[in-house]
Design a protein that fits this description.
Blueprint: E1 6-8, E2 11-13, E3 16-18, E4 22-24, H1 38-52, E5 61-63, E6 68-70, E7 76-78, E8 91-95, H2 100-109, E9 118-121, H3 135-144, E10 148-151, H4 163-172, E11 181-183, E12 189-193, E13 202-206, E14 214-220, E15 222-224, E16 228-230, H5 232-236, H6 243-250, H7 264-281, E17 288-294, E18 316-320, H8 323-335, H9 341-349, H10 353-361, E19 370-373
Parallel strand pairs: 8-19, 9-10, 9-14, 10-11, 14-17
Antiparallel strand pairs: 1-4, 2-7, 3-19, 5-6, 8-18, 12-13, 15-16, 17-18
Helix pairs in contact: 2-3, 7-10
Length: 376
C-alpha cells in the first residue's frame, strides 16, 4: 500500500495519554518513503533536547503547535521513527520504572483477563551469562496469573537443545523456583496454518502449545545477531517454534532439519508469518498480550551465553495487545536514547525493521500507535 511520507516530531511525555505524532508532507518526490533516517531521528532528538532541557516540570504546560506537554513528575523525550498516526486505536503502555510493582501496574493497564490455563512465554537464557529476565522481577506477575512458564528447545545446540538440559538451565536460572516450567516441544511439534504469508505455509510450534488457552508474552528487548533485534515478534515466532519450526523460520520454509542457509529478508518475513499464525490461533489475538522489558539492552540476544555489555541505558517497560506496535515503540525509543550507536548498527545491518514492515503488511499488527505513559 502506498504511504505518504510523514513529517516527524518528538514529544515530552509524562503521566497520562499522549500520542506519538506525525503530520503529512506533500513532497511528491518522497511519497513512497514511510520511515525517517537515523540521521533525521538523531537530529530531531538533539534539537528537541536543546529546546527542552531547561523546561520546568513543576507545572503543566501545553503548546498546540509543537505538541509539547510537561507535567509534574518525571518526563521522557520521545521521537517518532515511522509513520505514526495520532488517530490510531492501537495503544502501547509505557512506564520508566523497572520493578515487579511496575510490571504488575503495566499488566493491569492492559485490562486483559486471561481465560483457562495461562502460559507465560519467556526466554530462560543461555548460560553462563546471558541477560534473561530476572525471576525475582517477574515472579509476582507470573504468580498473579497462575502462569506456567513455557519455552522451546534451541535448534543451534548449546545448553538448551534437549529437554533435560533445558530444564536444568531453567532451574539454575531460578525459573522453576517461581512457577512450573514446560518445554513445549518435549514431545515434538504441532502445525499451525499460516494465512496471508509468502514464505511459510505452516508454522511448527511445540506440541504442548495447545495445552494453554491464554499467553502472556514477556520479552527482554535487546539486539540479535541475525534478526537485528529481539522483542515480542521474535518471542512468539522463533521462541515458540519447535526445533523443526525454528529451522523452517530460519530457512523461509525450505528445511525443517537445519536452521542454516536461508536468505535474510526471508528469515525476517518468516518470523512475522509464524507470529501471525500464533496470534490467529489464539482467538485472532484476543488470548495473547505482550510486555517488553527494556533493561540490560545488549546488542546480543539472550541466546548468547556471553553477550556484549550494553552501551545503552535501561529505558523501561512497554505493553500492548499488539506485538508489532510494542516492538515498534521499543525501536523508536532506541533511536532517541544515548549510547544507541552499536545497537542501531546491528539492527540496520540486519535490516531488522523489515520484520515489522512485513508483519504489518500481513495483518499481525500495526506500526501506528498511541503511547500511554503511566509514570506519575
Amino acid at each position: 500500500m502506498k504511504q505518504m511520507k510523514k513529517k516527524l516530531f518528538p514529544l515530552i511525555l509524562a503521566g497520562g495519554i499522549l500520542v506519538l505524532g506525525a503530520c503529512g508532507n506533500d513532497n511528491s518526490d518522497n511519497e513512497n518513503d514511510t520511515s525517517a533516517s537515523p540521521e533525521t531521528i538523531s537530529g530531531q532528538a538533539e534539537e528537541f533536547d536543546e529546546k527542552t532541557e531547561n523546561a520546568e516540570t513543576a507545572e503543566s504546560e501545553e503548546r498546540i503547535g509543537g505538541q509539547i506537554v510537561t507535567n509534574t513528575g518525571s518526563t521522557l523525550a520521545i521521537a517518532d521513527l515511522a509513520y505514526q498516526d495520532s488517530d490510531s486505536e492501537t495503544v502501547v503502555y509505557f512506564i520508566s520504572d523497572i520493578s515487579s510493582e511496575a510490571l504488575l501496574e503495566i499488566y493491569e493497564a492492559l485490562e486483559w483477563t486471561p481465560t483457562g490455563k495461562v502460559a507465560v512465554k519467556l526466554s530462560t537464557g543461555e548460560p553462563p551469562a546471558s541477560n534473561y529476565l530476572d525471576p525475582e522481577l517477574i515472579k509476582d506477575l507470573v504468580q498473579s496469573v497462575d502462569g506456567t512458564i513455557v519455552e522451546c528447545n534451541t535448534a543451534y545446540g548449546g545448553s538448551r537443545s534437549s529437554t533435560a538440559y533445558h530444564m536444568q538451565v531453567a532451574e539454575d536460572h531460578g525459573f522453576t523456583a517461581i512457577a512450573d516450567v514446560d518445554i513445549l516441544d518435549a514431545e515434538g511439534s504441532m502445525s499451525l496454518p499460516v494465512t496471508g504469508g509468502s514464505r511459510l505455509s505452516e508454522n511448527l510450534v511445540g506440541s504442548h502449545f495447545a495445552d494453554y488457552d491464554s499467553y502472556l508474552v514477556l520479552s527482554h528487548f535487546k539486539g540479535h545477531a541475525m534478526a537485528g533485534f529481539g522483542g515480542a515478534i521474535k518471542n512468539i515466532s522463533i521462541g515458540l517454534g519447535s526445533q523443526e519450526g525454528k529451522c523452517l523460520i530460519h530457512t523461509s520454509g525450505q528445511s525443517s532439519r537445519s536452521p542454516w542457509g536461508g536468505d535474510q529478508d526471508g528469515f525476517l518475513e518468516s518470523m512475522g508469518e509464524a507470529g501471525k499464525s500464533v496470534s490467529d490461533y489464539l482467538g485472532n489475538g484476543e488470548n495473547i498480550v505482550y510486555i517488553n522489558v527494556m533493561n540490560r539492552i545488549s546488542i546480543d540476544c539472550d541466546c548468547d551465553g556471553n553477550p556484549a555489555e550494553p552501551d545503552i541505558h535501561d529505558i523501561g517497560i512497554l505493553a500492548s495487545a499488539d506485538p508489532v506496535a510494542v516492538d515498534q515503540a521499543c525501536i523508536n525509543l532506541v533511536y532517541i536514547s544515548e549510547g544507541n550507536e552499536s545497537l542501531l548498527a546491528r539492527i540496520e545491518a540486519q535490516n531488522g525493521l523489515h520484520t515489522l514492515e512485513h508483519a504489518e503488511e500481513i495483518g499481525l499488527g500495526s506500526r501506528n500507535y498511541q503511547l500511554v505513559v503511566l509514570d506519575k
